[in-house]
Amino acid sequence: MRRSPRCGSSADPTLLSVWALKGIPEIVPGADLVALIGAAAGASLADGDILVVTSKIVSKAEGRILAADDREDAITAETVRVVATRTSPTGHVTRIVENRLGMVSAAAGVDASNTPEGTVLLLPVDPDASARALASGLRSLLGVEVGVIVSDTLGRAWRDGQTDSAIGAGGVHVFEDLRGQTDAEGRTLVVTLPCVADEIASAADLVKGKASKLPVAVVRGRGDLVGPLDLPGARSIVRDQAHDMFRRGADEAFADGFAAGAASVHERDAEAFGSGP
Amino acid sequence: MRRSPRCGSSADPTLLSVWALKGIPEIVPGADLVALIGAAAGASLADGDILVVTSKIVSKAEGRILAADDREDAITAETVRVVATRTSPTGHVTRIVENRLGMVSAAAGVDASNTPEGTVLLLPVDPDASARALASGLRSLLGVEVGVIVSDTLGRAWRDGQTDSAIGAGGVHVFEDLRGQTDAEGRTLVVTLPCVADEIASAADLVKGKASKLPVAVVRGRGDLVGPLDLPGARSIVRDQAHDMFRRGADEAFADGFAAGAASVHERDAEAFGSGP
Prior knowledge:
- Two copies of one chain form a homodimer.
- Chain A has helices at residues 33-41, 55-61, 71-78, 127-142, 196-208, 250-273; strands spanning 15-20, 50-54, 65-67, 79-87, 93-99, 104-106, 119-121, 147-155, 162-170, 216-220.
- Chain A is of the alpha+beta class.
- Chain A has three domains: 1-64 and 123-246, CATH 3.30.1330.100; 66-115, no CATH class; 247-277.
- The first copy, chain A, has a five-stranded mixed sheet with strand order 1-10-2-8-9. Chain A has a three-stranded antiparallel sheet with strand order 4-5-6. Chain A has a two-stranded antiparallel ribbon with strand order 3-7.
- Strand 1 (15-20) of chain A pairs antiparallel with strand 1 of chain B, so a sheet runs across the interface.
């Protein structure tokens, strides 16, 4: 393990250091992110460090760029299922959708900020694969066992504003599984499953800033979460539909129910009177 | 401003340090949290530091303790509105409810882990007021301008696991308002409103741990977010119902719609045939 002058040591689990890497240039399609992040990091990384990489630069490197006038088409193409839509008094339509990665978010992750003028960005094709490739490449290049999280900015159902969350993960545990462990009173913690990958992405956002060009941060102090490259990815954070109590907006579910309720009466009446539907 | 040997300086916005305070004893009803946290912090705090205090110890100090066999009654009492319920194959009932603080969460925040045997904890009566009192008391006691966030562990609609979020805030901005600022390409950032209070609570959870007794963490490096005690509290994070597209579970909204749809047909038929409903 390399020694580093940075503060924070994986030996003390009660201390975390988070910093943004400086010197990462504007990313263009085909850019070698491993080489660019490796050059920016230099010898500053150590075993157990977790790099949080903004999905935007992964998308750019992977060439996921479209002309801006295709934005609505792009959202439609990335959408698997419309969860809810709302039109504001000014006519702005918000579409909350499930995208092909299973994520529920506004605009299917299609991004029009911090992109070259006249363009929009799609999310990486497979952010878990991108994260694993980055972790693998950086481990080889720098000789340190790092984990990689690919982050995106997501809204929440019941809370205003956004937080950064993990949409890709390579070589890092996304959950800290405390189930089966005991609390301070010696009782089993049964339902607690902290999503540490989302918490790490949120911590990194505090140093990256939205308006600046600091797309990569390093989180040091949770080396216990770093592991083999074949750990489950961030896709495993996405709740499956069978367990999702909010898989459809309240208005939309009500409308579906209304139609079904009305139809059920017609059907019953049709049966009672013997006439066809 | 006091100098501190801890690494991380508010002068460098790209570096964040997060550590847990050691030496906070088991909290009992009536405990003086300002004195206990102040003693644990000693001279280590500086202007701009943000303390993240687990709501559990605030509840304990405020005596929000009930006998465990009142748990279901306590959940009912704390509930303003049932958002969704689900019964697992084993018969365990999950109630997602809005509590009197406006928060949507499981079990209305009634907590049965890390509590004295045979007891459950209610959330603080007014976590924003608790946070402001702590910030005010610590500023006076230690002579440093700190902010305080009271945190709780919350589930999410579409993502498995939990993250720590801010349910109380005193002397710290809960949102970083970037609206009106420009992105790196010079275009206005219109919809971005990072909920930095939730991100700070999440960062703090990474050092506090669930099974250990480390209920207070310090976040250093975002002194720009610390301000007067009358800044809006964490209550302002809660989305108001008029804008909440997920204010009711999909199954519950569908059932409501079904009943309304069936009733509408009966009503229409009653009008058509001139008979009473």
